[in-house]
Design goal:
17 helices, alpha/beta, single chain, 8-stranded parallel beta barrel, 5-stranded mixed beta sheet
């Protein structure tokens, strides 16, 4: 392992932390939270089964590090701005897979956290999340294996057990296994945000172990403004405080100067979403949470009807900013001396270029249709295309998919550089349509055999 100086290790005492949240905890939200004053930011939970298959790619156009699944999906994106303060949350039930995943990511994050509190059916049935709460031996195995195998801090996030004694016992197991800190969500597996948080459990854990305890679960009843954060820390006796729902609704909760209006926060988040090329659906979801009380406003209605990132930018008069960023990406590609029409040397150069036809909208088309077995392989078209763009220092492919209501068929168009590609055939699912569009692009550029 590449050794990290002790002075450079992430410290968990006296911190205000952005909680891991599915669909919310992506790069734009994390960066905005840090800008507003968060000390540490957790990414959304990612399951080891998927993450371990990813390829690490340095995206020189976005200036990020992307972890790309064989399906072509970027599961985790990070950048230097958060390098020393971002924690990767891992969903796992197996020490071996946990170690492989952690070693893949450890040079690009400041810490690894094991999710031991998620009550969702998928996690529990897979032996992950809250299922680990009643398996202290497995918890010990996973934590100790990670601590021995990576050079960055390993932490856990748990929910409470039915009795204080059981919760404290689990906390002791986690401490003795070598964890650097423990986040405690003060609710039972069966409880939801509308249920009162159990302060007594968090307080008992904080008094029973020596590692930092991060209090979580107080947003609904206790934390509504910045001053409430310290009050909640003192109430629980914890070292630090982790904020979820309040930050989901208004990430400016981390500002010492006070909360900002939702529209201002939405606009700030949108800047990061554009700058780091977020998928419009991801940006739309996060913005909808910020505007949860204003979705019937003019801006809210426009947001819900938007179909791409440019549409969303226009709501807040950021259309020019969107265009400027796109020009910046293009200029960066040219600075890196990228010829978008070049064919890489090697086997691909020996393949014949298929004659794609340009339709009336300027989209290059071929009659290509991917089958399910093609997208389940280790290296499907979307993954190949993404990796090719990263290796050639280009902006990641962008997909736009439409559905035909008459028969529920789908067609996708992928943009690579300044060209668009699509299959002339309609597909049975959105996933197959995107893979088919990627295959058209690869074949048109002679990067994929026509037999594939």
């Amino acid at each position: 392992n590449e050794l990290i100086k002790k002075s450079d290790m992430l410290e968990y005492r006296g911190k205000v932390v952005l909680a891991p949240m599915v669909r919310i905890g992506k790069l734009p939200t994390r960066l905005l939270a840090l800008e507003y004053g968060a000390d540490i930011v957790y990414g959304e939970e990612i399951i080891d089964h998927r993450m371990v298959l990813c390829q690490r790619m340095e995206n020189e156009v976005l200036q990020t590090v992307d972890f790309v699944h064989p399906s072509g999906q970027c599961l985790f994106r990070t950048c230097k701005l958060e390098r020393n303060r971002v924690v990767f949350q891992l969903g796992t039930a197996d020490p071996g897979r946990a170690v492989k995943t952690a070693q893949l990511i450890e040079k690009d994050v400041a810490g690894i956290d094991i999710n031991m509190g998620c009550p969702k059916k998928f996690s529990v049935e897979g032996g992950m999340g809250a299922a680990l709460l009643t398996q202290p031996d497995k918890v010990q195995q996973i934590v100790s294996a990670l601590v021995k195998s990576v050079s960055i801090p390993v932490t856990c996030k748990i929910r409470i057990l039915p009795t204080i004694a059981e919760t404290v016992h689990l906390a002791n197991v986690i401490e003795h296994a070598g964890a650097a800190a423990l986040a405690v969500h003060g609710r039972l597996i069966s409880e939801r945000p509308q249920h009162k948080v159990h302060i007594d459990h968090i307080k008992a854990v904080a008094a029973s172990i020596s590692i930092p305890v991060i209090a979580n679960g107080g947003c609904v009843d206790y934390i509504n403004e910045y001053a409430d954060i310290e009050k909640y820390r003192q109430l629980t006796g914890a070292s630090s405080v982790m904020i979820a729902r309040t930050a989901e609704w208004n990430v400016s909760i981390f500002r010492k100067e006070g909360l900002l209006p939702p529209f201002e926060v939405a606009k700030a988040l949108l800047h990061f979403a554009v700058r780091y090329n977020s998928h419009y659906a991801s940006a739309k979801y996060c913005l909808a949470q910020i505007l949860h009380k204003q979705l019937e406003s003019c801006e809210g209605k426009k947001l819900m009807s938007a179909h791409n990132l440019k549409d969303i930018c226009d709501i807040w008069d950021l259309g020019n900013y969107y265009d400027e960023v796109e020009k910046m990406f293009s200029a960066r590609e040219h600075e890196l001396q990228i010829d978008r029409d070049c064919i890489p040397l090697g086997n691909s150069a020996k393949r014949s270029r298929l004659e794609a036809e340009q339709n009336e909208y300027g989209v290059w088309e071929l009659p290509v249709q991917c089958a399910k077995n093609e997208i389940k392989c280790q290296d499907p078209p979307k993954s190949q295309l993404y990796c090719w763009t990263m290796k050639n220092r280009m902006k990641a492919p962008h997909y736009e998919t439409v559905s035909r209501h008459s028969d529920c068929m789908f067609k996708s168009t992928v943009t690579v550089g300044d060209k668009k590609y699509s299959s002339s055939l309609w597909c049975k699912s959105k996933k197959l349509a995107e893979q088919s569009a990627a295959a058209v692009c690869l074949r048109a550029m002679a990067l994929l055999d026509s037999k594939t």
